[in-house]
Amino acid sequence: MNWKNVKLVFLREVRDQLRDRRTLFMVAVLPLLLYPALGLGMLQMTLLFQEQTRTVVILGADELPPPALVEGERFRAQYFELPGDAEKLRIVTDTNTSGLPQEGSEPNADVLSTAQQIRDHVNDLVNLEREADASRGKSDPAEQQELDARVTTLKGEVGEAMSAAGIEVMILVPEGLKEDIAEINRKLAEGQQDISDVDTPRLQIVRNSADEKSLMAYRRVREAVENWEDLLLRERLASAHLPESFPDPVNPDQIDLARDQQLAANVWSKLFPAMLIVMAVTGAFYPAVDLGAGEKERGTMETLLISPATRTQIVIGKFFTVLLFSMGTALLNLASMGFTGKYMLSIAGSGQMSQLGDVALPPLTSMIWVLVLAIPLAALFSSLSLGLAMFARSSKEGQYYLTPLLMITMGITVFCLSPAVEITPFYSVVPVMGPALLLKAMLLANAEVSSLYWYAIPVLLTSVGYCALGLWWAIEQFQREDILFRESEQFELRLWIKHLLRDKEPTPSFMEAGICFGMIMLLQLAAMRFMGDATAGLTDEQMPIRMMQLLMIQQLAIIATPALMMGVMLTTNFRKTFKLNWPSLKYVAAAAILAPVLHPLTVELSQFLGQHFFPPLPESAQRAIAPMLDSKQPWWLVLLAFSVAPGICEEMAFRGFILSGFSQRGRIGLAIVLSSVLFGVMHMFPQQVFNAALLGLVLGLMAVRSNSLLPGVLFHMMYNGIEVMRNRIAAEFWTSSPMNWLVTTEGVGQDVQVRYDWPLLVICGVVAGGIIFWLLSHGRRFHQDSVKSVSDTSGLSRVSPA
Question: pTM of the full predicted structure?
Answer without folding.
Answer: 0.68
